[in-house]
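User: For a benchmark we're assembling, each entry needs the component sequences followed by a predicted structure for the full assembly. Here are entry 17's components. Please fill in the structure.
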Amino acid sequence: MAYINYTTKNLAIKIIYYGPGLSGKTTNLRFIYSKMDEDSRGDLICLETDIERTIFFDLLPIKAGMIRDFKIHFQLMTVPGQVFYEASRKSVLKGADGVIFVADSQIPLVDANLENFDGLRKNFLEQNVDLNFVPLVFQYNKRDLENLIPVETFNNLLNPRGLPHIESSAINGVGVFESLREIAKLTVPIVREKIFGEKRKPEEKPEEREKPEIKKEEKKEKKEEIEFAYKEKIAPIKITKVKFKSQRDIENEIDSLAQDFTGSPKK
Ligand SMILES: Nc1nc2c(ncn2[C@@H]2O[C@H](COP(=O)(O)OP(=O)(O)O)[C@@H](O)[C@H]2O)c(=O)[nH]1
Ligand SMILES: [Mg+2]
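Assistant: Structure for entry 17:
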């Protein structure tokens, strides 16, 4: 559930980049970091274990406009890919408001994607959360390579509900902001409903979408509220590395980082 601070009027929405190891999750965050204005994002923080010195997962806080008079932040987080980090994957999922499933499009990795997706469902279930009720979009990554799993096959295997799917090449920045926008579109109405008690608008009918004047109005409305301000120039990436000793450390740090960004007092 989103973090909210009524005094400072800040609200943080937690988005998880989930997917098999090396599918491109960190690459998404790096691209977003490098393209956003400095005052619209925080540092890219990578958490490392003390012992193995492997990167555990990354976190990037970004600003994204307003809902009513609340400043909206997105906490973008990746999960560790390796199988032995199952416990950490679970703790990262706690309180997730939305998930971008980053799949690796290379044919030999079909099973790795399916197993990982199954793990996502199970890890949510262990927290009594049904994945069917979690805002979710699919990012089929590495479309710049050859020997790819066809999009249709991916959709049949992973996405029978027909949720948004984006073909991406995160390394070239293709599809990265599109994925973020899609998950924002699914997440924000739920946060509005949960936090402000607003009723969600019924799905618009396709014929209404065709009308140019409605389209224009819609765009304007979005611009005033949720937007990701990015620039043409790519900035160098500065990564802050933080080391951890235990699982508890990680959970505390995630909480503290999220609260930090919303201006809440530290525990
Ligand atoms: N060709 C190609 N390589 C990618 C793409 N996205 C990520 N990679 C590469 O895949 C490797 C793993 O990416 P990374 O983001 O670290 O994966 P993570 O384990 O999911 O965080 C790196 O060498 C990336 O440069 C892509 O769209 N196309
Ligand atoms: Mg990574």
